[in-house]
Structures are given as structure tokens and as C-alpha cells.
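Hi X.,

You mentioned you wanted examples for the new student's onboarding notes, showing what a folding record looks like when two proteins sit in one file. Here is a clean example. The first protein comes first, with its sequence line followed by its C-alpha cells.
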Amino acid sequence: MKKISLTLLAFCAALGVSAQAKKDPKCANVNVTQYEPEVIFKRIITTPQIKSQEVKMVIVKFAPGEVSGAHRHPIPTIAYVLQGNISSTFNGKTHIYKQGEAFWEDPNGLHAESKNMSKTEEAKLLVYFIGPKELPFITAAK
């Protein structure tokens, strides 16, 4: 899994775009944790095989003990745990991911919750989204 994350990071670096932290207006009304997701990279892909797709890298932070709200990602999602341990319930299955591990979420699956397992330390994810540029990377659960 680390190889996937490193490959994607290298791919993004190869695009030659500087990272800029900002909010994504398409996701403005979705609050999953007490911190707003921080988009650190965004670029429209012009490669003919995947034209008109957008790649985003987002930092998601969890306060100590914080549990996220239910949500969905309408586009493919790859997450990498930068810090801490995260319990994630996706499509009815719960798994604990530790620092240095990566995981995949299929589009539109129900992400019932994510929980920072520590009561004293923040947890952080680096999340990659790749999909049509007009879609938000997160939506409220329905």
C-alpha cells in the first residue's frame, strides 16, 4: 500500500504544479470533522487517456477522539495515514488503519464514520481523489 501512495505522490510531483492549501467550494456544506479538509494539490489532467479528470490531495485532520460524520465520496478515494490510528467503517465493515498504511474506498460507498483512536493526539490522513472535475470530493450521506 505504501507503494501506491508513493507512486501517486510521485505522479503528482511529476505534473509540475506547486501545492496550494485551500478550500474546495464544491464541498462547502459538508462538515465531516471539526477541521475543514485542506486541499493541498489540485490539477486538471490533460493526458488523453484520462482527459478532463481532476486529481486532488487533501489533508484531513481529526481532533483527539473525534468521530467523523457519515459521508460519501462520489469519486475513487485513496487514503494514507500520516499520523495516528484511524478506525474506519466503510460499507458496513470496520477496519483500523495505522500510521503508514494506505487504503482504498470505492466511489459512493457509505463511509459511516472514521474515528481517531487516540484521546490525546490528533490523527491525520493524506487523501487522494481522482475523478470528473465537476464532482465534489465529498457529499453528505443519504
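Then the second protein repeats the pattern, sequence line and then C-alpha cells:
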Amino acid sequence: MLEGQTDSTTFEIWNSGTGTLSYSLSESCSWVSISPSGGSSTGEHDTITVSIDTTGLSLGYHSCDISITSNGGSGTFTVEVNIVEDFSPPSISNVVATPPVQDAGKTVRISATVTDNAGVADVFLNISYPDGTYENFSITANVTGHTYYCEKPYTQLGTYPFTIYAVDDAGNSNESSSSFSIEDNTPPEISDVEANPPQASPGNAINISATVTDNAGVADVFLNISYPDGTYHNFSLKQNVTSNTTYYCSNSYNKLGVYNFTIYAVDDSGNGNKSSSSFLIKDNTPPKVRVIYPNGGESVSGTVTIRWNATDNYDEENELKVTIKYSADAGTSWHTIASSEDNTGEYDWNTSALEDGKQYLIKISVKDLSNNQGVDISNATFIVDNTKPSLVLEKPRHNHLYLFDREVMPILRSRAIVIGKITVTANATDAPSGVDRVEFFVDGTSKSVDSSKPYEWEWDEMTFTSHVLKVVAYDNAGNSVYEELDVKVYNI
């Protein structure tokens, strides 16, 4: 045996006769122990176990007597051992790397079965990396039964030669080698692909970003954007990276529609992956609209040319559509005049069938191609007046004689007779919009215009003949009414 080893052997005690055999055992050596140390037998065989521990024994032969005392006599059982020197190295078997080919960044389990006739003192693992470096460390603490192991991940691509070294308690050593390979078969991982914001107006910036990681290393990241018109743009994001993992592109886009984009990533081993998403460029800005006429304070009648100005930040003016409404009650209710009209800037509105009123408003609504709507309303109410003014020619009157501006008497003729000068006087009124002016004509020629009451004109022209006197009253909406009178004038 080797010093420091343990072993055991057995022998039996029994009563070969009749009666009961009682016995006891004793030993005189510290490296031997017995169990049990006593007992009795009536014929059955009792097994005595002798345990041997050679720790501390010197080289050579050693013997130990076990004394047996019984009521049937006594005897001796001798144990002999020969302590020899240990020249046997540990045994190393089942050296494996699991798996023998692993993906970068994943765990490889290196294991070996190590045994020794005396005892294993230590087990070491030496690993050579593909870049020429190496690592040497004990795996004695990682043991299950006689299997020693090491579990850890590796990222360098290539072959990893490794050696298991084992040393026993006597200093004998042994080694066994093997290898495993690390390859990169895993494509990059792409996550958190987003466009922020996912919807924007033309010209506003959109930030496209993605998180890209790889077990071995990211070689490049590309962005491919397909535009709404069918064109595309493909470029590298390698220089646009934060925190070594977030790749991005911030840009503005003007074409309306959906932009489909794809993030492509390639690692150092040529493995590729991709992830796609999209964003929307939409015109969210309504057209600018301004009512020009009628915009408040006007008096209108008959056919009115409504005028406006409408522009858009993106669409052409001729691509806009216009809806026109009016209100007769200062905006409480609205009525459609025209809808989906071209943006010509004007529209003829026939007001003849409308009631006269002072609470009219115009509303212009304009939509662009993205269905954004801009609206403007007259700044103030305006008047619709389709009723002619009231007009009475008070002086001169038919069938009357006037002498130097004084009415003298009625006459039998239908015309008026005027001797000398006369102040022609008219009474004009208009309820909806008011009288704008009264104009005086003689034989079709305008002689005077009066814009305020009393409406009159002094007729003092040298004449000695008959004339047609015409008086026309105009209201602020453009309506007019007139009266005519045949007059014989004697004025020299």
C-alpha cells in the first residue's frame, strides 16, 4: 500500500460447538481499528471488519496482532501491510469540450475524469486563445464525483487548444489535451426599431433609430428608405451611433405618403439581419384663407362677386377646393352657396331671392389635398338690400305753375310750367341700406348730385322751351329708382 491510503478486510468468528460463545477483541496498533470489538455466537458467523489507515507509516513492512479472547479459548489475527513509494501519476480520461463547436459568446463546458491511486491534489486547465494569449487556472473546486469541469463563454473566433493538468498527493502529474472552436453563426440582433415621430408634416425632422448588438461584433448597419414616389435611398449608419448600440438617422422629408424603411445589420463574420418599419409624412397644416369681399360693412344687392384669397403650405393654389356659405343671422346658422369649387378667388352670388337684412356674413372654407381645412369669415356683418329706394319728386309737380321758385296754382295741363329759376326738390328714403345719393338730369344730361338731405338742385338756366326733368335715387346697395316730369321753362 501507499502511505496515506485506507483499506479494510474482514474475518469471521463463530461457535462450532454447542452453547454460547462469548468473545472480545483488542489491537495494539494505531493504524488498525476493529468493529465490533466483542460479541457472542450460538452457531451463527459474526463478521469482524478490520479498517486500515496507513497515514504516517514509513516505507516497509508493518504488522499488527488482533487478540481474540473468548470463553472457548483465545487466538490471534495478524494484519500485515507493506508501505511502498507512489510512482503512479493520476489518470485523466473523458477529456471533452461540450459542444466542440460553439457560437461566439455562448458557454463551452470543458470536463475530464481524473482519478489517482493515492489521491488527486489539484487539477489545472490551460487554454490558449486564438489571438495567442492563454489562461491557466485551477478547476479543483469544480468537481462532481471524479469529473472536473469549467464552464464559461468565449467570444474570439477560432480554435482554442486546451490541456488538463492533474497532480496527485505524491507529486506525480499527468496531462491530456484537446480543443474546441468558436464560430459566429448568429446574426446581429436588431431591436427597438422606430421612427420618431411616426407621423410628421413635410419638412419636419424624423429620427429613425434601432438598437443593434452582436455576439462577436457589428461590422456595419445600413438604412434603406423607400419613398412614396417609388424611389429609394440606401446608406450606412455606421458613423451615427450612440452608446455603441443605437444607430440613427435624423432627416426631414417633403413628399407626402408612407415611407417604408429597413435596417440592415452585418456582423464581422458576414452574418446579416434586417428589421423593417414605416413612418408617414402628412400635411397637417390647413390652408390660409382670407375673405376679401364682402368682409363687413358693405351693402350689396343682386349678383355679388364674392372674393377671397387662399394659399397652402404644400399644395398648389389650383389644387385647393372651396366651400362658400352665408349667414343671415350673424353666424347663428349657415347656408351653402357653393361647395367643392375651384380656388379661383371669386364666385358670383345671386342674392335676389334673399330677404333684405343687416346681419349677413360670408364664410369661406378651403381644403387641401390632405383634407386640412382653413376657414375665414367676414370680419363684420354686411347688408343685403334688393329693394329699390322710395322717391317722390316734390317740386316741381305736374299740373302746377311755378313763378320764381314759388308754387302759384294748379293748371289744366299735365306738365309743369316754371317761370324763372326753381329749386328742384326730391324726397328719397331707403330702409335696408340707406340712400346713397340723388341725381338730377335735364334731357338726359346730369346736372347735379346731392348725397344728403334735403335732396335738391337749383335749376337756373336760360331757356325758353320744354324739357324732361329726371330725378334718380340710389341706395347704398346699388338699387335705384327714378321719376320723370315734362316741364315748360321760361327763364331769361
